[in-house]
Specification:
175 residues; single chain
Length: 175
């Protein structure tokens, strides 16, 4: 009896992953691009691992809630077969999980540039794994999708890093 319940839940989860892949992609992509960029900018502007981690976490939680709310309203207005609340949950949960993975180096290392480098490696690994998963599940070409997502994430990070430097100079921030 217990095995049948577990089997049923696994089937439901696999079905959910297929139906709500758009919500998962939205949360993952947005978190990767937004938080990696924010962490890059904060690294140069603040140069203190713990402060960067706290600001990144606050930003990430706020953004996850915002993305969940937006996904909920979007699905509700489209009248698709997806349930708005479940779609919002997947978007927010994946977003928050990605945030936690990206800020982790700042929580364990004091050297901000080392933390940023490790964050970029984690982002690269997430992009690789997720792009591979989507490519296999949907039959998409892996290489182009991987490099598109990687390029977007890196460009946003570089721009944010420069913005962080300029803001630091303009406001004379020394932390």
């Amino acid at each position: 009896m217990k095995e049948k319940i577990i089997e049923k839940q696994i089937k439901l989860l696999n079905k959910d992953k297929k139906e709500y892949i758009g919500a998962i992609v939205l949360g993952l992509n947005d978190a990767l691009i937004e938080i990696t960029g924010a962490l890059a900018g904060l690294t140069l502007a603040l140069q203190n691992s713990k402060i960067i981690a706290v600001v990144g976490l606050i930003t990430g939680i706020s953004a996850a809630l915002s993305m969940s709310a937006s996904e909920y309203l979007s699905i509700k207005s489209e009248k698709t077969k997806n349930k708005p609340l479940k779609s919002a949950f997947y978007t927010g949960f994946i977003y928050l999980l990605t945030v936690l993975l990206l800020i982790f180096p700042y929580l364990i290392f004091d050297r901000v540039y080392y933390s940023l480098g490790l964050t970029l490696v984690i982002a690269l690994a997430i992009i690789f794994i997720f792009t591979y998963y989507i490519s296999v599940k949907r039959g998409y070409g892996f290489k182009k999708r991987f490099f598109d997502m990687l390029l977007i994430s890196l460009v946003v990070s570089i721009i944010s890093f420069i913005i962080g430097y300029v803001i630091r100079l303009v406001f004379g921030v020394e932390v």
